[in-house]
Amino acid sequence: MLKIESKEIKNKIEIKNLYKIFGVYPERAVKLLQDNKNKDEILSGTKNVVGLNDVSLSIRSGETFVVMGLSGSGKSTLARCINRLIEPTSGEIYIDGENITAMSYKELLQVRRNKIGMVFQSFALFPHLNLLDNVAYGLKVQGVPVAKRHERAFHSLQGVGLSGWEKYYPEQLSGGMRQRVGLARALANDPGILLMDEAFSALDPLIRQDMQDELMNLQDKMNKTIVFITHDLNEALKLGDRIALMKDGEINQVGTPEEILVSPATEYVARFVEGVDKTKVFTAAHVMKRPQPLVYAKDGPRVALHKMKKAGISSIFVVGRGKKVQGLLYADQAAAALREGQDTVIPYLDIGYPKVAPETCISDMFDMMASANGPVAVTSPEDELLGIIVRGAIFAGLSGGESPYAGI
Amino acid sequence: MPEFRIPLGDVTNDIFDQLITVIAPVTNGISSSLETFLKWNEAFLLMWPPLLIVAVLGLLVWFFVDKKLSLFIVFSLIFMLGLNLWDQTMSTVGLVIAGTLLSLLFGIPLGILASQNDTTEKIISPILDLMQTMPSFVYLIPAVIFFGLGKVAALAAILIFALPPAIRLTNLGIRQVPAEMVEAASAFGSTRLQILKEVQLPLAMPTIMTGVNQCIMMSLSMSVIAAMIGAGGLGREVLTAMQTVDIGLGMEGGLGIVVVAIIMDRVSQKLARRSQKGEEIAGSGAGSK
Q1: What are the chain B neighbours of A117 within 8 Å (beta carbons)?
Q2: How many domains does chain B divide into?
């Protein structure tokens, strides 16, 4: 969970003290911001609207970096500053070490053509061009000859599963397909960076999930640096290697999805993550209890019963050497072993006990929990017992006040 | 009590008196070259036997535009031939074509210019308002002063009247292109010229074609009024009818103008709609594949 910052991880995009003010006297507003005036004071004092307030970020090569916030938080402005569709008021942006903000128009065109692909919420496909020409657009403006750009566009469409659709027009497609084309268009000139501005927000929930999965699959293959803008926390948690949470043009917290959920940096972030579907984020490891007491393989039925009685439970896991799970022992079985005068419980174990891996999402465990009679074992691939989950622990973990590690 | 009066009329007269001596050589040059152009234009239309023109136009429209419209064109033109108004009709058509072409030649580039820059739009817009609201009789007089009685003065008047819709609708069409299209085009590194050529103009085409249609209709209506300064054609028939109280002649000339108007309007509208539908047709073609 903790990633160690090291010099070897190359930053693809480096944003330093970026400000964007919409209005007549932007420089004056920047000064006021640096004097710790807030957004509303500046609006009423200078009629300037603060878009971005001292944003500094490092986005690593090959990561999916999600910028998340509600509308008006400045997230789309931030994305557009990266390719200077919106001119920042002050601050610097470096892509591969080159200062974008200091570039001439001509140099900027080259960066837009070669290094950055962009996908839009509204798809923004060109209605007068067929899909092949839509995807080839970025290559066309670079002056790539027709045959070559069509070939590359063809492959790009193939990559998003739309081969055979080259001659169709955008209006003949469904929303999900249109955004595939948008993605293919952004990927056609093989840029290192993909800017996705609320790319899936206009899609139906199911299509949206498909697209998210598809993006993750594509990303596994292509390893781009993705800057993904969204207002949907679940989407952010699903896609993001790291997430930046924005409010009023400021970054409130940057961290992995878990860091954001487990230790929100500000009250705003805490309130924001309150409503999240934690069952999709929290894993078995988050809600499991330390497996105590345990019965060891050498223990007889008398010991087992005693341990259960003392803990007030009706079933208990039996482990062998290296905490390797042997099975689950129910109280009535232990009693039977005692009656029959056995000095081992091994033959009486339920070996069909339910078990999960520690990284399983809670949402994927509901079915198993519903049908399980006793606790669920959380085991390593080597069958080592890491913890157990009882039904109550899940609710405790989800309602989680300070710590989701309830019951430890 | 001293009378309060702004001497706008006197000043205008003075300015024009001065202007004429300076501009006359220039306008005379323009006038003579335009006149040759107009004469050629008209001569070209009159060079062919009327029935050949009717047949060719009918066939072209039949195959490329609309079959019903083709029938209407053939019958109505034969009707004009029967009224012995062929020469006048061709004269009017020639003037309208020249006026439209000239208006588009200036109007579309000016419209593009206005669309790219807010200041340009702010400067051009009130001038267009003035051109469109000023009663045409007011500028018929200076047109005659500069270009003399005849078709060239008429052309100048047409230009004043038909230029505004061409500029306005070109500007409007380009500005109506959704901002996200322009943004997407910029995001992929298009230059401004590429955005204009690859995205804005193609998407503005339906509106620009409406402008072309408007331009044609404005040219026609002004060509009739311009009969008063010697534009000839069908307008002169109507004018003569008015002056001699010849109701019958007025009916003939008037109907002629209506026929020309309907033909030009429908043909240009159908063509405009086709430029819009072009992609749908191409699209459904691919769909049936």
Answers
A1: 188
A2: 1
CA distances from B259 to B69, B71, B78, B84 (A): 12, 13, 11, 14
Instruction: Report yes or no on B287 lying in a domain.
Output: no
* Chain A closest-CA separation from residue B277 CA (Å): 10
pLDDT digits (tens, 9 = 90+) for A316-345: 888 888 888 888 888 888 888 888 888 888
Structural domains of chain A, with CATH = 62-83+103-277 (3.40.50.300), 284-399 (3.10.580.10)
Question: Do B188 and A185 count as a contact with CB atoms less than 8 A apart?
Answer: yes
**C-beta atoms of B183 and A124 within 8 A:** yes
Strand order in the sheet with A325-330: A295-296, A315-319, A325-330
Closest partner residue to B287 (CB to CB) among A142, A172, A189 is: A172
CA atoms within 13 A on the CB side of B66: 14
Residue with the bigger pLDDT between B123 and A369: it is: B123
CB-facing half-sphere around the CA of A81: CA atoms within 13 A: 32
The minimal CB distance from B189 to the residues A127, A142, A168 is found for: A142
Nearest to B187 among A112, A142, A168 (CB): A112
Question: Which chain A residues are within 8 Å of B202, Cβ to Cβ?
Answer: 128
Assess if residue B124 is contained within a domain: yes
User: What is the extent of the structural domain holding B96?
Assistant: 23-275
The residue of chain A nearest to residue B186, with distances taken between CA atoms, is A85
Residue A311 CA, chain-centre distance (Å), reads: 39
Domain assignment of residue B116, yes or no = yes
pLDDT value of residue A336: 87
Q: Tokens 């027009």 — which residue? A: A169
Confidence class for position A390, pLDDT limits 50, 70, 90: confident
Collect all residues of chain A within an 8 Å Cβ-Cβ radius of residue B203: 126-128
Most distant pair of Cα atoms in chain A: their distance:
91
Does residue B11 belong to any structural domain of this protein?
Answer: no
The answer to whether the complex's ipTM is over 0.85 is no
Q: What tens digit of pLDDT does each residue of A2-27 get?
A: 444 444 457 899 999 998 988 888 87
Instruction: Kindly give, in sequence order, each residue whose CB lies less than 8 Å from that of residue B123, ignoring residues fewer than 6 positions away.
Output: none
Domain containing B49 — which CATH number?
1.10.3720.10
